Amino acid sequence: MKKILLIIxxxxxxxxxxxxxxxxxxxxxxxxxxxxxIVAIDTVAGEMAVGVQSHWFSVGSIVSWAxxxxxxxxxxxxxxxxxxxxxxxxxxxxxxxxEVLKILIEADNGRDVRQLAMLDKNGKIMAYxxxxxxxxxxxxxxxxxxxxxxxxxxxxxxxxxAKSLEENHNLPLAEKVVKAMMAAQEAGxxxxxxxxxxxxxxxxxxxxxxxxxxxxxxxxxxxxxxxxLDRLLKVHRAYEHMNNGDLxxxxxxxxxxxxxxxxxxxxxxxxxxxxxxKAIALANNGQLEIALPIFKDVFSKDKNxxxxxxxxxxxxxxxxxxxxxxxxxxxxx
Length: 333
Hints:
The chain has helices spanning 2-22, 82-92, 97-107, 157-167, 173-186, 225-250, 254-267, 272-284, 288-301, 304-311, 322-330, and strands spanning 32-33, 35-42, 47-54, 64-67, 71-78, 114-120, 125-129, 138-142, 145-149, 196-203, 213-219. The chain is elongated. The chain has a six-stranded antiparallel sheet with strand order 8-9-2-3-10-11, with helices on one face. Strands 1, 4, 5, 6 and 7 form a five-stranded antiparallel sheet that branches. The protein has 333 residues and is of the alpha+beta class. It contains eleven helices and eleven strands. The termini are far apart. The protein folds into two domains: 2-223, Glutamine Phosphoribosylpyrophosphate, subunit 1, domain 1 (4-Layer Sandwich); 238-330, Serine Threonine Protein Phosphatase 5, Tetratricopeptide repeat. The longest helix has 26 residues, at 225-250. α6 (225-250) packs antiparallel against α7, α6 (225-250) runs parallel beside α8 (272-284) and α8 packs antiparallel against α9 (288-301).
């Protein structure tokens, strides 16, 4: 019993100390990232996401925070970025998202102008909208998501995000979040317009720091940030197909490799580099006859790839006989 009381006492003292340490006063020079955002989780895929759009430069550098095996945070309105870093820190210590949000908001003297949403690896979600956030400002917490916005054109923006998430529940999490942000924009969006956007996706399981973000896409300054973000997500998916194709070749599954490469090329048909490395992979795995016409097409459009090919054997990236090397280089004539 004494041991339990001691643990509880240490916990309370720690929280009180932490509250004093992170207490913030509102400052007029704080980032002015009024925006709409989404935090969401796919418990089946084991993914968490945060997506944001704003009429503010580089919104992804201050509003969105995510860490694999921990959770995701969106801190907006008059932004206190410490709510992002401190939120992840507390969640990493096993404190649920709802408790973390309460601790941080109670300690923040600028709470009336804050808007904050948090989601942890276990699917616990909480959101907060300060009483002085510029209208239209609100949030909705649904099953596996929270959507929130401030300084919106109208009251339809937040419900539009919630509706889109629920209607598109079968989509992959990243695509679902982007689609919901597009629904928010179609409903009116930020009253000032649009400028930047971000999408972060992390695993619910901890990963090494270098692999922490499954998806990490930012559009810092663009006339159509969501359209550009959607384009970048498609490029990301195309490269996933390329990587899957390479992996299939390593496993000796040529049929799957060709299928994955074809999917990538279909998504980005004009990308010569994808075609080139597909040809290299095929040549290295005894499929020269399939590779040769691909080399010919690439070389005809950009001779630099021909020069690149001459350099690869020395680095061990192209391992073919002299005879086959000549056949490859002849495609550039």
